[in-house]
Amino acid sequence: MKKIVYIIPGFGESHERQKGYERVAGFFKEQGITPIHIEINWHIKKPHQFEYWKEQFLKKYKRPKNAKVYVLGFSFGAVIAFLAEPKTRPDGLILCSLSPYFIEDQAKLPKAWLKWYKKNIKGSDYSFVDLASRIRSKTFLVMGDKEPSVVGKRVRAAKRIIKKSSLFIARGAKHNISEKEYLKGVKRVIEKL
């Protein structure tokens, strides 16, 4: 059976600029899963909208017959994978450091984050609780234990609400998919697919 994975990078990132995405692709190849890198044009439209980025991903998403399909997203890429799940319904959803930019998060964001969000992101007032309760795919959550606390709270809430989910903590890792410690956590998840 053919197996593929779509890899969605974090905000402003690309598999060509951040070597961690190539390492992640290599972990999938070791498991017989073909990686497909999704390039998001992060800056083509301002103000930025998650809905627009999600549509970019969905235009590139294909589900071959008789194939197992996985989707991995990091940070804003995880938000895109999360928002697209009702249309993609992958066999496995891997949300790495799911960003805390949902309605429920806004009161808890550091002031600088909230100011940036309100200035740069529009039309993206999503209820995390509402959306998470609709996720049907088997979901793997990954986060570093040295990430900002608001990221940790969002990821742990996802673990509580998403029915078929499991949480993997990358010990010593910050919010950086290219970090050796973070990559170890991602590799552990991929080996369980």
Secondary-structure blueprint:
Elements: E1 2-8, H1 20-30, E2 34-37, H2 50-60, E3 67-74, H3 76-88, E4 92-96, H4 111-120, H5 128-132, E5 139-144, H6 149-161, E6 165-170, H7 180-190
Parallel strand pairs: 1-2, 1-3, 3-4, 4-5, 5-6
Helix pairs in contact: 1-7, 2-3
Structurally, how many domains make up the residues?
A: 1
According to CATH, what is the topology?
Rossmann fold
- The fourth-level CATH homologous superfamily is Alpha/Beta hydrolase fold, catalytic domain
**Strand line-up across the major sheet:** 2-1-3-4-5-6
CATH architecture descriptor name: 3-Layer(aba) Sandwich
Shape: globular
| Low-confidence region ranges | none
Number of E-state strands: 6
What does this structure look like?
It is a single chain. With 193 residues, this protein is of the alpha/beta class. The protein has one domain: Alpha/Beta hydrolase fold, catalytic domain (Rossmann fold, 3-Layer(aba) Sandwich), CATH 3.40.50.1820. It has seven helices and six strands. The chain has helices at 20-30, 50-60, 76-88, 111-120, 128-132, 149-161, 180-190; strands at residues 2-8, 34-37, 67-74, 92-96, 139-144, 165-170. The protein has a six-stranded parallel sheet with strand order 2-1-3-4-5-6, sandwiched between helices. α6 (149-161) links the parallel β5 and β6. α1 (20-30) packs parallel to α7 (180-190) and α2 crosses α3. The longest helix is centred in the middle third of the chain and has 13 residues, at 76-88. 38% of the residues are buried.
